[in-house]
Design goal:
Helices cover about 25% and strands about 25% of the residues. The protein has a five-stranded parallel beta sheet with strand order 3-2-4-5-6, with helices on both faces. A three-stranded antiparallel beta sheet has the order 1-8-7. The termini are far apart. By secondary structure, it is α/β, with parallel strands linked by helices. The longest helix is centred in the first third of the chain and has 18 residues, at about 20-35. α3 (about 120-130) links the parallel β4 (about 105-115) and β5 (about 135-145). The chain has one domain (about 20-85, about 95-165): 3-Layer(aba) Sandwich (Rossmann fold), CATH 3.40.50.2020. The protein is built from four helices and eight strands, in the order βαβαββαβββαβ. The relative contact order is 0.21.
Length: about 190
């Protein structure tokens, strides 16, 4: 039985990546992580809720398929470390963070769906600091859309997607959104 075609999340949205393209991008990121980190026992792929957690799980699963070693997967909640709490009409939902008990000596690879201003990544690094000091922190993102407000860049990128600041990027995962895996962008 074939999968239903993904439906646009907004009337003027255009499909950027379908399920197969997302899978290829995450497999490529997994290969790059293996190349840069020969000791897979010393890495933990840490997802930023909500879709970053799915990105982390899929990267770890790909690494396990290639190398027969599954890296640790963690979750880091950034809700109370954001610098825009006063600007939001509602407080964000807090998700429990899960990291290895001792992160000293580990390389933590933050995983998220979209990198935009860099502020979520900064909040994630602040949250990690409350758990200890890892050996290194790297960043893996499915989409890098530019427009950084902080000096942050991704180490691993699935797709660079030039956008205007006003455009919106939508990432959908079946496990999170109950719709086919896809990435969409609003038309300008």
């Amino acid at each position: 039985m074939s999968q239903p075609a993904p439906q646009p999340p907004a009337p003027e949205a255009s499909l950027v990546l379908d399920e197969q393209a997302i899978d290829r991008a995450l497999r490529r990121i997994a290969h790059e992580i293996v190349e840069r980190n020969p000791d897979l026992a010393r890495i933990c792929i840490v997802g930023i809720p909500s879709r970053g957690v799915e990105v982390a799980r899929r990267i770890a699963s790909n690494i396990e398929t290639f190398e027969h070693v599954r890296p640790d997967v963690g979750v880091i909640d950034v809700s109370m470390h954001r610098d825009d709490l006063r600007l939001r009409p509602h407080l964000p939902t807090v998700v429990a963070s899960h990291l290895p008990p001792d992160i000293a000596g580990l390389t933590l690879i933050l995983a998220d769906d979209v990198l935009f201003s860099g502020r979520t990544c900064r909040a994630a690094m602040d949250a990690i600091a409350s758990f200890g000091r890892p050996r290194r922190i790297e960043l893996a993102v499915l989409i890098d859309r530019g427009h950084r407000e902080l000096p942050i860049r991704a180490d691993y990128v699935g797709k660079n997607l030039p956008t205007s600041p006003a455009q919106r990027v939508y990432v959908r995962f079946r496990s999170v959104d109950d719709s086919p895996d896809s990435v969409w962008i609003d038309k300008e």
